[in-house]
Each structure stands twice: as structure tokens, then as C-alpha cells.
Amino acid sequence: METYSLLREFADSWMLLLLFCIFVGIGIWAFRPGGSKAFEDTANIPFRNDDKPAPDREVEK
Fold first, then answer.
1. Residue 34: its pLDDT value, please?
2. Distance CA 50, CA 13 (A)
């Protein structure tokens, strides 16, 4: 069997299964119940040092 055919057969079978398992694992990790607090904290980083709202700016016409 030539190298290309061997690698193609591997990619079509086992590598597809491996990548699908990795995809499912990442999905489970992202939506796990304990992760929401960490994600919420990270999502609020831009708003941590807001003491007051930004001043209103006049729009030039």
C-alpha cells in the first residue's frame, strides 16, 4: 500500500473519530455547570473600572 492511500484511510476513519471526540469534549467543557461563574467574571472585565457613565458627546451634523 502506498503512503498516500494509508494516510488517506487513517484520516477518513480514526482521525475523524478523534476530532469528533475532541469537538464534543470542548462542547461539554464549555457548557459545564461550574464554568458559568468563571465565564461571567471574564465577560465583565471591560466593566470593572467604570465609576460613572461616559459623558454625552454632541454629534456633528
1. 81
2. 52
